[in-house]
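Supplementary Methods. Inverse-folding protocol.

Structures were first reduced to a discrete structure-token string of length 472. This string, shown here, constituted the complete conditioning input.
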């Protein structure tokens, strides 16, 4: 029985285009593995990377569609920033962003547009420290690589890379150039998430054993808004969790991934796509363009389970098709308590974990039900993250998904200006992005377990616990 299964997995894995080998240890079952390229000679890891302090962060933006302009606006509200250049395929999108600079009393930025590769000239400028990328998914990697080659730090929208070859190219380039390469995952800065992370780091939930996250967001009203229909085309062509980072990033931070624990393997399953093919079939514009709803590959609902080296589990879900309320799930299960964000935001915590000077009648609490609202508020006040203590008011005023986008950009600039490690490094980028190719590999192989590479190539246990860096 064993040989045909192995042969089938091998053949199916080859069909996916990934380099896969089977491992056998003492006749027990082993996951599919993808290649971990040898670290090029002369390179070392960029864990806790620090670079010289920048008095002013000089930035160039590429990609000014739905997402990019908000970033330009937010940067005009951050101290120590100079916006030097703006780039999009379309000159009117560049021009429309100049108004944010003018309104902030900043000089107009150099404009690049009109050709597919005008962005290269932006990267080549010698007065830019940071290239900020908000284009479609397939342009991210060439832009990140070129910007780093030109000596620039890089910040790139989610998901920054979609396949293993690209992910390793980005990791290698960051290690070679020793420049910052951060994925712009905003959801790790949301108010409930960061407060809960702080509680977790103070041991309020006991030992964390299981975390859940998701991207559940029906994109039907948005499909037609993406430039050149890039998002629909990508989903049409690819199975797997192609947009995992909003749920997975906060989960990985809670579990100190590559800072004391590591992702070991995943298994993934999807349901057949129905809603999006129906949408394509029923949309008159798409029908008149002759768009073919058959052969759509991305599943209606994709579910992935991951096990870590320290024996914890993560559940991640993706559904951009079904008519469901928005949810990033966000659940934390510990030995002493529980947190949940969607649909009900609350905590269930054992009385022993509560400070009686902060919460009255704390002895009535148990892990069996959510704490009452006043207790939740007291806890959230007690464990308000130092980042929120400093930035909440300003973040809510500037905005961007309720303020978390501003906090993300502010922290990026703050760390660059203070010569601190960024909150998210290139290994976070790699780990959070690898779900796209590795879930596809699992799904296309009957949900076989797939080993997740250690992108630090041996450094995952050097840093003990994830913490945000602050200037002395
Ligand atoms: N973090 C979040 O909450 C969040 C929210 C929305 C989108 N996103 C991400 O942001 C990115 C952009 O999404 P969007 O919704 O703005 O897409 P979009 O299609 O609206 O915008 C993409 C822009 O990139 C430009 N572009 C494409 N190729 C280019 C090139 N060669 N040179 C210069 N410009 C080029 C397009 O002209 C377009 O204006 C995606 O990665 C998406 O996943 C993140």
């Amino acid at each position: 029985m064993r040989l045909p299964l192995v042969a089938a997995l091998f053949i199916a894995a080859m069909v996916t285009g990934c380099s896969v080998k089977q491992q056998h240890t003492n006749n027990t079952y082993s996951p599919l593995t993808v290649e971990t390229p040898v670290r090029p000679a002369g390179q070392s890891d960029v864990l806790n990377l620090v670079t010289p302090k920048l008095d002013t962060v000089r930035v160039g933006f590429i990609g000014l569609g739905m997402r990019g302009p908000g970033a330009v606006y937010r940067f005009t509200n951050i101290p120590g920033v100079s916006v030097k250049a703006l780039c999009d395929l379309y000159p009117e999108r560049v021009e429309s962003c100049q108004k944010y600079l003018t309104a902030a009393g900043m000089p107009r930025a150099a404009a690049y547009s009109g050709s597919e590769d005008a962005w290269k000239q932006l990267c080549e400028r010698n007065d830019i420290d940071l290239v900020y990328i908000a284009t479609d998914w397939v342009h991210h990697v060439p832009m990140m690589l070129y910007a780093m080659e030109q000596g620039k730090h890089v910040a790139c929208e989610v998901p920054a890379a979609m396949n293993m070859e690209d992910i390793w190219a980005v990791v290698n380039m960051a290690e070679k150039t020793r420049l910052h390469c951060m994925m712009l995952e905003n959801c790790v800065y949301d108010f409930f998430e960061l407060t809960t992370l702080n509680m977790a780091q103070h041991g309020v939930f006991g030992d964390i054993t299981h975390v859940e996250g998701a991207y559940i967001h029906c994109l039907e009203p948005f499909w037609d808004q993406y430039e050149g229909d890039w998002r629909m085309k990508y989903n049409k062509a690819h199975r797997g969790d192609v947009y995992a980072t909003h749920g997975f990033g906060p989960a990985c931070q809670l579990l100190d991934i590559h800072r004391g624990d590591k992702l070991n393997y995943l298994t993934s399953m999807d349901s057949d796509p129905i809603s999006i093919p129906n949408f394509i079939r029923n949309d008159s514009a798409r029908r008149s363009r002759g768009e073919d709803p058959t052969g759509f590959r991305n599943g209606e609902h994709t579910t992935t389970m991951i096990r870590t080296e320290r024996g914890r589990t993560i559940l991640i879900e993706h559904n951009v098709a079904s008519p469901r309320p928005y949810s990033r799930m966000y659940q934390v299960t510990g030995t002493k308590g529980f947190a949940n964000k969607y649909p009900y935001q609350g905590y269930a915590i054992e009385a022993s974990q509560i400070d009686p000077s902060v919460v009255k009648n704390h002895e009535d609490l148990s892990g069996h039900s959510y704490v009452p609202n006043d207790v939740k508020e007291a806890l959230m006040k007690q464990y308000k993250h130092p980042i929120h203590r400093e930035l909440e008011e300003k973040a809510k005023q500037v905005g961007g998904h309720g303020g978390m986008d501003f906090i993300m950009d502010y922290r990026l600039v703050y760390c660059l200006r203070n010569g601190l490690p960024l909150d998210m490094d290139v290994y976070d980028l790699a780990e959070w992005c690898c779900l796209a190719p590795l879930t596809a590999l699992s799904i296309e192989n009957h949900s076989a377990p797939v080993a997740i590479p250690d992108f630090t190539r041996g450094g995952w246990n050097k840093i003990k616990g994830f913490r945000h860096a602050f200037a002395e």
